[in-house]
Amino acid sequence: MQIAVLTIFPEMFPPFWEHGMIRRAVDARKIHPSTVNIRDYAPGRHHVTDDRPYGGGCGMVMKAEPLTAAIQAARQAAPGAKTVLMSPQGRVFDQKMARELARLDGLIFVCGRYEGVDERVCCDHIDAELSIGNFVLTGGELAAMVVIDAVVRLIPGVLGGEASAEKESFEDGLLEHAHFTRPDAFNDMRVPEVLLSGHHGRIETWRRENAMIRTFLKRPELLMARPLADDEVAVLEKWGREIERIIQAQSTGARSLDRPGPSSGR
Ligand code: 4G3
User: Fold this and answer.
1) What separation in Å is there between the alpha carbon of 262 and the centre of ligand 1?
2) Mutation pick for ligand 1 pocket among 7, 58, 83, 87 (CB with most ligand atoms within 8 Å)
3) What's the mean per-residue pLDDT of the chain?
4) 35 neighbors 148 (Cβ within 8 angstroms)
């Protein structure tokens, strides 16, 4: 996959391309990254990339000519690529979009700075406007890195085992189960016994149940947005019954002195 980034701060990117899984993807020739300095496409002695907004107001706007010239050059270098503008006005990026982008031949990221980009660039030269969340950054560079990181790890052959990306968090709409490594006792907390048992069937069952309950406790809206399998409903029912039992014990007078029942305040 060709990945071109258009920015006025190209120095931000080599450290990103040169570490971790992104670097491995480069070494394995799965991605071919390039960084384009928008300033190189700005005419005149001073290579100006921004200007004051029509209609007045504070802040600056990125000029249309240097940006469109940079986009056209990047398009020529990667003809099949999709051009993406990172902006708070974009569609909010998620794992499903990451999977879609991972199938493309190329991506060209346009990183805005200042208050934004001349509207006429968006109309003509941008295929998709993406946001990494409902907050404002000083530039699109970090947002582009976030999207690139999420996409590159989904390219077949990058993560190591192809299966690992599919098994994990969000790929089936649930959070990941809890993870543990040595030692088996840490600060008085023990690793769940079943994980030490070597019983793969019971471990798999525990992990599915743990993922389900963690999702319910931490991100219940994810469960609402997803059809539940029969065994997943069974897990929720089992825990629902357990919670009912605890509530019942409260109202049937199982009182303790340090933790009085609900009517004790009067
Ligand atoms: C305004 C992306 C600001 C317009 C970029 C670019 C947040 C995100 C900017 C524009 C950004 C985001 C730069 N801030 N939430 N700032 O993905 O095109």
Assistant:
1) 50
2) 87
3) 93
4) no
Atom of ligand 1 nearest to the CA of 122: 18
User: Which runs of E-coded beta strand occur in 146-196?
Assistant: 185-186, 189-190
DSSP string, 125-138: H-SEEEESSSS--S
Q: What is the pLDDT of residues 29-43, one digit of tens each?
A: 999 999 999 999 999
Q: Tell me, rounded to whole angstroms, the distance of Cα 31 from its chain centroid.
A: 19
Strand 128-131 with 189-190, pairing: unpaired
Are 25 and 158 in contact by the 8 Å Cβ rule? The answer is: yes
Of the candidates 49, 71, 35, 69, the one whose C-alpha atom is nearest the C-alpha of residue 116 is 49
State the Cα–Cα distance between residues 160 and 170, nearest whole angstrom. 19
CA 29/CA 15 separation, integer angstroms: 18
Q: Give first-to-last CA distance, the chain, whole Å.
A: 68
pTM: 0.92
Counting DSSP H helices and E strands in the chain, the numbers are 11, 9
* pLDDT above 90 for 199: yes
pLDDT above 80: residue 263: no
Burial class (CB in 10 A: 0-12, 13-18, 19+), 151: buried
Structure tokens at 180: 């543990």
Q: For ligand 1, is residue 135 a contact (CB within 6 Å)?
A: yes
**The token pair that represents 231 in the structure block:** 């065994």
**What stretch of H or E contains 74?**
helix 64-77
Three-state DSSP class for 109?
strand
Cα–Cα distance for residue pair 152/263, rounded to 1 Å: 57
Instruction: Output the CA 126–ligand 1 centroid distance in Å.
Output: 14
How many Cβ atoms sit within 10 Å of the Cβ of residue 144? 26
